[in-house]
Design goal:
By secondary structure, the chain is mostly helical. It contains four helices and two strands; from the N terminus they run H-H-H-E-E-H. Helix 1 crosses helix 2, helix 1 packs across helix 3 and helix 2 packs across helix 3. The longest helix is centred in the last third of the chain and has 22 residues.
């Protein structure tokens, strides 16, 4: 698992509330986006997303992890721009 890719996918899914929308924006298939999120959850040993057929929402752990993920991805963007 590429952890940074999984974090980017997780972040986009959380922001959009949808695997389909996130997958479209990231130019991934929906199953690939779902697989990245599932691999990240398995790696962390925590459920980050609540999934239903109509929407995706964050768990308490997901909310905390999203805040940290956003900071990490922002730092990475800043480093790349420098």
């Amino acid at each position: 698992m590429d952890q940074l890719v999984a974090m980017r996918v997780f972040s986009r899914v959380a922001e959009r509330g949808s695997f389909g929308k996130a997958a479209d924006e990231l130019e991934l298939s929906r199953p690939a986006a779902s697989a990245h999120a599932a691999a990240l959850e398995k790696h962390l040993g925590a459920r980050l997303l609540n999934r239903t057929t109509r929407r995706v929402s964050l768990t308490a752990e997901g909310t905390e992890f999203l805040a940290r993920t956003r900071r990490i991805l922002e730092e990475l963007r800043d480093a790349e721009e420098t």
